[in-house]
Amino acid sequence: MKLHTLKMTNELTTNDNILYTPMQTTALGLFLRQRKTREIAEELDVSERSVQSWIAKFGWKALRDDSPPDLVTRQRIAYLTWVDEKTDKQLRELEVLLKFHMGDPKRKFSSGSAKDGSNRGRRANKVKNDISGITQDLLDNFRDKTFFKYQTDILKTKADPKLNWMRFYLKSRQIGLTYLFAYEAFEDAILTGDNQVFLSASKKQSEIFKNYIRMFALQIGEVELKGKDEIQLSNGAIFYFLSTNSRTAQGFHGHLYIDEVFWIPKFKTLDDLAGGMSMHDKWRTTYLSTPSSIAHEAYPKWAGSKKDKIDISHKALKDGSLGPDGIYRQMITVDDAIEGGANFFNMKKLHRKYPDKEIFDNLLRCVFLDDSHSVFDLKKLMACKVDASDWKDVDMDAAQPVGNAPIWIGYDPSGQGDEAAVVAALPPKRKGGAFRLIEKLRLQGLSYQDQADQIEALTDKYNVVEIAMDVSGIGGPVSELVEVFFPQVMLITYSINTKTHMVYKAREVINAGRLLFDGQWDDVVHAFLMIKRTITKNSGQVTFTAARTKETSHADVAMAVMHLLSL
């Protein structure tokens, strides 16, 4: 095994005198922290094949394999918990890792106490979900070593009765507020015995809160929490994990957390129903979300009434402000998080990743989208969001998730600064029925052959009967490779008429409520909102354009959907 040493030049050298570039040095660090090759490639903005070649060339796998299994697993869990918008695969991976840790009674964990630094075996819990051993000192120690200043400042508002009745946080993506509020609720349940209710856009999203809660119990008190849709602690406190389906969002009571409110369909109806959960004076309500559009039903609650004249500018809300309507509001941008201690952002890379100012500001600086020029209506798009776990004929954990049911695929090639996207959908079973999106892929930094291989893998996984591909740009070479295993592929050559037909067809389907996708797929909504009507410079004709960036499946995924809808 090679020895690796860091030189003062910020380059890494081995005992074979192999010199690493700074990028390879960074890649090695990420690899040793259990990042996947795809995740490293996305972080460094290089192809996945480049990362794979470095791993093979320099023998990194042997370095990582020498790590103790317990350390490897804990490192991977730590990384996955900080990913706010987890993919289905990441959610399943986190669930498996947590089960692995909790399933072996012989496994030993750190007590979480900084006072003695000792390890001890897990206590045999005679009482289900016994949290009697989790003390204030253990919680204080975990909180002090885990959270940044901007997060601990938020925790202080919970303890202030003047501010905590109703709180509303508008946030940048990826700053760890979901993780923070899961901890806040966990700590409160331990210390007070109060119920905690989490409302998310889908069951999958509510699983994120549940996994965090289970992880806190395991890390802080070595307690294996049991429970599916709800977890009851030994002190009587109950955690409820609910989707935003109005049929289930009632009948419970406790401190209420509503996640990503600006991406929830029919928010006003849900808010009226959910309000009953926290109606008693002792219960707090907390809203948190990244911004969507001012057309969203949650916007009036954020902005307040005209008579209250609430200042919702960043300057007024950066440090939080209690409005005359009794709602405490705070806006936390990526800049605020960095100022408050967040050390995991690189602003230069973020600006390169999101060169379009509108998208950058929306994702990271809490600026609402101006969808007045968008072809698609936010309310109609929100109505397309459903809880995909209710689809009894779809099991994404199975080798063939939909059996022999026919599948249509849409492919959009990468353009300048964005990614290629592939979307798979169940077409309507009858005329006028709904298209159900079941899988979406992002293809970044892949060769023509690798992209074709990804599509071919879908034909093995599903009974694919239709594929529609844009053949402009690199789409042409990819389509030629796809035709080898799927000769009947539909090739789309863009023109103003073709694009107009696709946009109008998609809008007709969406407005009729005939496009359905999982409530966690906010990126699909965002993608369609990026498509706007413009006028060509030369001919003055009406056409459609979209801001296409490297953000998780933005306009690219909308184009892929429109391709399959045009079949």
Nutshell version of this structure?
With 567 residues, the protein is an alpha/beta fold. It is built from 22 helices and 21 strands.
| Gyration radius from CA atoms, angstroms | 25 Å
- Write the CATH architecture name of the largest domain: 3-Layer(aba) Sandwich
Would you give the CATH topology of the largest domain?
Answer: Rossmann fold
Per CATH, the superfamily of the largest domain is P-loop containing nucleotide triphosphate hydrolases
* Through-space gap between termini: 54 Å
Q: Structural class, judged by helices and strands?
A: alpha/beta
- Helicity level: 25-40%
Query: pLDDT average, as an integer?
Result: 83
Describe the global form. Answer: globular
Segments where pLDDT lies below 50 for 5+ residues?
Answer: 1-17, 103-121, 548-553
Separate helix tally? 22
Please write the CATH class name of the largest domain: Alpha Beta
Mind describing the biggest β-sheet?
8 strands, mixed
Domain count, please report it: 3
Measured by DSSP, the beta-strand proportion falls in 15-25%
Across the major sheet, the strand order is: 7-8-6-9-10-5-12-11
What is the total tally of β strands? 21
